[in-house]
Amino acid sequence: MAKRLLDRILVVDVEATCWDGPVPEGQANDIIEIGIAVLDVATAERVDRRGIIVRPERSSVSPFCTELTTLTQEDVDAGISFAEACAILRTEYRAHERVWASWGEYDRQQFERQCAALGVPYPFGTRHLNAKTLYSLARALPREPGMAGALADAGLPLEGTHHRGVDDAWNIAALLGGLLAAGRS
Ligand code: AMP
Ligand code: MG
Q1: Residues with Cβ < 8 Å from 53, sequence gap 6 or more?
Q2: TM spans, by residue (predicted)?
Q3: Topology of 7-184 in CATH?
Q4: pTM check: above 0.85
């Protein structure tokens, strides 16, 4: 059984190929960016951030996807493979031993689907934290908000570019850090 590390939370936000409508015949949603923000548990501060650009293997970047994420086909052509990116999560971030968090269940499900489809080992352990549900419960909100809505609710700025994985992860980590800090006051 993997060691349990409670020192840091890995906040992860992925961007994936997408279309203004259904997935085109013969293509599938591929992760094109893995945003990682590292939240130090003792201080509730964000201590590291990184965006890993991933080359899509089953799809290409549509104009709609570039509009949403700012990422172009040229950008992702320069990325690394999904298998290499997952290996980085394990070796550099010890993702299989740490708690990881994302906004909702989409990111976890996309990792699960893509790892299964491509035969890549799932890089995380079993302890995924749905930051959206946690935030909504802690704030007693009637509905689960999007990330931008939650930042507005918390009175925090949206730093960087929304729908870029690295910036989304950084902002989600701020929301989660706020919850950690509030739990100790
Ligand atoms: P986000 O973390 O909100 O930037 O979204 C993650 C991924 O979900 C994006 O990279 C897209 O693949 C997909 N997505 C988000 N919003 C939309 C949308 N309005 N239409 C289609 N796909 C979307
Ligand atoms: Mg995002």
Answers
A1: 32, 33, 71, 75, 76, 78, 79, 80
A2: none
A3: Nucleotidyltransferase; domain 5 (3.30.420)
A4: yes
